[in-house]
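Objective 1b of the project was to move from sequence-level analysis to a structural picture of ligand recognition. The entry below was assembled by the postdoctoral researcher (A.K.) and checked by the PI before modelling. It contains the amino acid sequence of the target and the SMILES of the bound compound, adenosine-5'-triphosphate.
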Amino acid sequence: MIHADQLSKEFGRFQAVKNASFTIEKGEIVGFLGPNGAGKTTTLRMLTGYLPPTSGTASIAGFDIVKDPLNARKHLGYLPEHVPLYDDQRVTEYLKFRARLKGISSKQIWPSVSKVVEQCGLDPVRRKMIRTLSKGYRQRVGLADALLGEPDLLILDEPTNGLDPNQIRQIRELIKGLAENHTIILSTHILSEVEMICNKVIIIDQGTIKAADTPSNLTANLRAAGKITLEFRGDLSLVTEKLEAMEHVKKVIHEGTDADGWHTLTVRAEAGTDTREKAARLLAEQGCPLRHIYRHTPTLEEVFVEMTRKD
Ligand SMILES: Nc1ncnc2c1ncn2[C@@H]1O[C@H](COP(=O)(O)OP(=O)(O)OP(=O)(O)O)[C@@H](O)[C@H]1O
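Corresponding predicted holo structure:
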């Protein structure tokens, strides 16, 4: 659906996006993650044809975004970070105006507007002036606008930014519903949002793509992926020594000992290894009762921090 090849953008001497290459297949729901100023909006604006790349190419549904922007745009709906709505228009009036601008035939304008009004839950405010709408409803109007013309690709730039928790939940539900029959790129700071909605993650930092993979592959390859914690009773220094000598183990950390003599140890091992079975066997051999053992599941937040840390 999207192929970006060495896409770059310079503002004067500043390189906001550097040789970004990625592919997004039809039906994928992609979380586009990065710290402030990483180059997310710039990349999305290039894909949507609002900003010409300094170098590199990209295509949407096979149409080059520079050479064939009109055909490329027919396939995409764009919700920008700041939705430029006309405050002095009523909701349906605005959407009709937008539908006309998008070249929807006059016969199709009303059915198209009715459809997106229903899809985005705008019926209660359809006759209201845009200036009187809450931020959540304004965002829905932006989303309805993006959906006009039935594009198969949606590019949503921080769709829940600035909304309250209830509004966030509603917009998220709306996006989840749209995910059933659209390809979606979602730029966001909210990692839980990506975990809940997306089946692919692209991480960008300082203009460079750092990773593009499924959330489970990203977390599996992380340092934290090899970490286990266990609680046992017995000889702390002997067990620590034996655990440290075990294959794949890098470090053993004593987290504490409670009043009943239960020690808690965290064992850091190589990513992708699972040392639980060997550790449990070792404790049994030493005659140490084992109360609890578990392997840490790394979160997307840990992946994000690891990929974008400055040290
Ligand atoms: N028109 C412009 N002129 C000069 N610099 C720009 C312009 N647009 C963006 N930049 C710079 O390019 C960098 C990337 O900006 P961009 O808006 O793409 O980041 P972002 O990842 O979307 O950040 P945020 O999460 O804060 O929205 C920033 O350092 C920004 O200041």
